[in-house]
Design brief:
This protein has 95 residues and is mainly alpha-helical. It has one domain. Helices cover 62% and strands 0% of the residues. It is built from five helices and no strands. α3 packs across α5 and α4 crosses α5.
Length: 95
């Protein structure tokens, strides 16, 4: 499986990062891996960043969001994906 082969995954990511519009912070690539079944990836998009910023009372970067979600997931013994998904669902329902 590609996701278990770090060298191949890095190679694929390097090529994906050359795709126009893929962004500079790996959000879309992380989302791709999430869709491929990697429950330890998160997609800190506008919904997640806005929620985290509101809860913490300050602006949150993509890198910090990934780190914080990983730490919280470990503490709660759940996957980072499940937290990302719960936040996204809540925020996407807001008017």
């Amino acid at each position: 499986m590609l996701l278990k082969d770090v060298e191949r995954t890095s190679s694929v990511e390097a090529r994906l990062n050359k795709v126009r519009g893929s962004g500079t912070q790996g959000i879309r690539t992380g989302y791709l891996w999430m869709l491929a079944g990697d429950d330890f990836q998160v997609k800190p998009d506008r919904h997640v960043l806005k929620w985290m910023g509101h809860v913490l009372g300050r602006r949150i970067s993509v890198v910090e969001a990934r780190s914080l979600l990983a730490v919280v997931a470990t503490q709660l013994d759940i996957t980072p994906w499940s937290i990302d998904h719960a936040i996204w669902k809540k925020m996407s329902r807001r008017g």
